[in-house]
Design goal:
It is built from 2 helices and 3 strands; from the N terminus they run E-E-H-E-H. It is of the alpha+beta class. It has one domain (5-91). A 3-stranded antiparallel beta sheet has the order 2-1-3. The protein is elongated and about 65 Å long.
Length: 110
């Protein structure tokens, strides 16, 4: 079925550090190309297979970048947040100031 989706944890490329929901075919291809992992597999980082050679790592990065550019061109995924590769939602600065109290209650310290 074409509408089936899976979540992947991207470990390489423009979406590194993000969880994405993609088609099952794209998820399987990403995991097999070594630029993403299945977050529900229970597998720890770096424990799933032997370390990649420099050539395999370059191929995986190229595959991740090619996939991301295809998504941007097709309009199905937005580019990652400004800051480029490795920018995770946790590292994006946000305004986290507390709301001002509605009443005029004053404490002794004020």
């Amino acid at each position: 079925m074409a509408d089936e989706t899976k979540r992947i944890d991207v470990i390489m490329g423009p979406y590194r550090g993000n969880l994405l929901t993609v088609s099952t075919a794209d998820a399987d291809a990403a995991v097999n190309a070594h630029w993403a992992r299945d977050p529900h597999s229970g597998e720890e980082y770096g424990k799933g297979h032997d370390p990649l050679s420099d050539e395999e790592r370059a191929t995986a990065l190229e595959a991740a970048t090619t996939w991301a550019k295809a998504q941007w061109a097709g309009g199905t995924q937005e580019p990652p947040p400004e800051g480029g590769e490795g920018t995770t939602p946790a590292s994006v600065k946000r305004d986290m100031e507390a709301d001002k109290p509605a009443g005029g209650y004053r404490t002794r310290s004020r």
